[in-house]
Structure formats: C-alpha cells, structure tokens
Amino acid sequence: MMERKYKQLPYRFWQEKKYKSEYSKLIIQVNRFLKIYREEALISVFQRYTWLYSLFHPKFKEFLEKEEKIIDQIQFKANQSEKIEEKTEHCNINKSRKIGKLKNLDA
C-alpha cells in the first residue's frame, strides 16, 4: 500500500480532500505518459530506477525514452529471429519436397 511520510494511507485515500488533488495530478500525468509511451516502459522505469518515486522528476521523461528504445530493440530482435526461423522452415520444406520427388524417381 502507498505510504506518505512513513504513514500508511487510509483506505480509499483518493476520495479524501487531503489527498484528492495530488492523486488527480498523478493520474493525469500517468495518462499523459501513456499516450506517448508504452505501459511496459513506464513499469520498467520504476523497476529499474528504484530510487525514483515521482512522475514529476525532471529526468523521468528521459528515463521513459531510454526504456522505450530498449523495448523497441528487444522487439526488433525478436521479429528478426522470427523472420529467420520462417525462412529456414520454408527452405526445409522445399528441400524435403525436392528430395521426395527425387526418391520417387528412383523407385
């Protein structure tokens, strides 16, 4: 559960006047980031930078961009390996068909 100044927040804290404006600001900021970046990037920023606790940190956007690039690279490599596997499977199918035809000629 979220904590503030080492005190546990009350149940449904976002409905209390004390926390409502801060909570609303956070939700708005998260939605702004999610319009631009993937949710995986947002999550991985908080996982990678454990000392980071604010969406309003001056370098938060920079960290998001780095994570987005990392995710793009991972997906690109995965797509490349899938394409290579498809090509090798296609080649193997053609070879087996040709060999099958040659075997039929011998018989």
Topology (elements, then pairings):
Elements: E1 3-4, E2 7-8, H1 17-36, H2 39-48, H3 60-106
Antiparallel strand pairs: 1-2
Helix pairs in contact: 2-3
Any key phrases for this structure?
2 strands; 72% helix; two-stranded antiparallel ribbon; single chain; mainly alpha; 107 residues
Strand tally: 2
- Count of DSSP-assigned helices: 3
Gross geometry: elongated
Mean pLDDT: 79
Strand order of the largest sheet: 1-2
Characterize the structure shown:
With 107 residues, this protein is mainly α. It has one domain (13-106). It contains three helices and two strands. A two-stranded antiparallel ribbon has the order 1-2. Strand 1 and strand 2 form a beta hairpin. Helix 2 (39-48) packs across helix 3. The chain is elongated and about 85 Å long. The chain starts with a strand and ends with a helix. The mean pLDDT is 79.
